[in-house]
Amino acid sequence: MKKTINLLSLAFIATIILSACSSKNDDKKAETTADGSQTTTSEPSKPHKYPFEKGIIYQKVTAVGMDMPTTVYVDKWGEWEATEMTMEIMGQKSHTLKIVKGNDVWDIDMEKKTGQHYTQSAMTGYQGLDLENLDMSKLTDEAKKMIERLRIEFTGEEEYLGYKCKKMVMKGKDMQVNMEMLMCGNMTMKMKGKAMGFETSMEVTKIDKTAPPADKFEVPAGVTMADGK
User: Fold this and answer.
1) Is the dihedral of CA 24, 54, 220, 206 positive or negative?
2) CA distance 125 to 45
C-alpha cells in the first residue's frame, strides 16, 4: 500500500514542479516622494496557485491501474489547500488527507487516524515560480536540480472547462517521467503519461467555485499527529 502511494507521489512530480506558471497579480504599494506626497505604484506579487480564491476541485485520478477519486479544497487562492484521496487495493481501503496552510503541511492517514506535521518553504514546494520566465539565480539548489532534470516544453493552448490552458510536455529520462499536461496558470487540469514506468493520468472533471467547509483545513478529531519529516 505505502509503496503504491509513493509511486503515485512520484507520478505527480509534474504537478509539484508546475505549481506556478504565469498567473500574476499586482499589489498596490504606497511610496513617499521627496516633497512629502505619496504615490501608489504596482509591483508583481507571488503568482496565485489557482485562478479563483475559493473552490472545490473534483479530479479523476488513475495510477498503477487503480482509480483514486480525489477532491481538492481551495482557499486564499491556494495558500490553503486540502487534498482528499480514496482508493482500495486488494480489499484494503486507503483514505488520505493532506492539508497545506502556507508553509505548514499535515499528511494524514484517515484509516489509521495518524499523521505527520512538517514545514516546507514555498520554494521547496515549487510555488511562486514562473517557468516561462525563470530566473535560475533565485532558485534553491534543490529546485535547480529538479528543473534541470525535467525537460519542459510548451506546445500550444486549449480551452478546458471554460478556462484558457497551456499544453505542456515534461520529460525526464533519469527520473522516468514522460508527461503531457494541460495547465491553467498554476492549476493542473489534465495530466497523462508515465512516471517511474507506471501509467498515470489525472483530469479535473468539475470545479465548484464555492467556499469549502472550514473544517477541511483542520486536523480531524481523533487523529494523532507527530512532528518531523
Assistant:
1) negative
2) 17
- Please name which of 195, 181, 222, 204 lies closest in space to residue 72, comparing C-alpha atoms: 204
Residues 6+ apart with CB under 8 A from 72: 56, 57, 59, 81, 82, 83, 84
Query: Rounded distance, CA 102 to CA 100, Å?
Result: 6
Residue with cell 491501474: 65
What are 35-50's pLDDT values in tens digits?
Answer: 555 544 444 455 678 8
Report which residue type is found at 62.
T
| Segment 101-129 mean pLDDT | 77
**The pTM is what?**
0.73
Residue 42: CB atoms within 10 Å: 10
Contact, 17 vs 147, CB < 8 A? Answer: yes
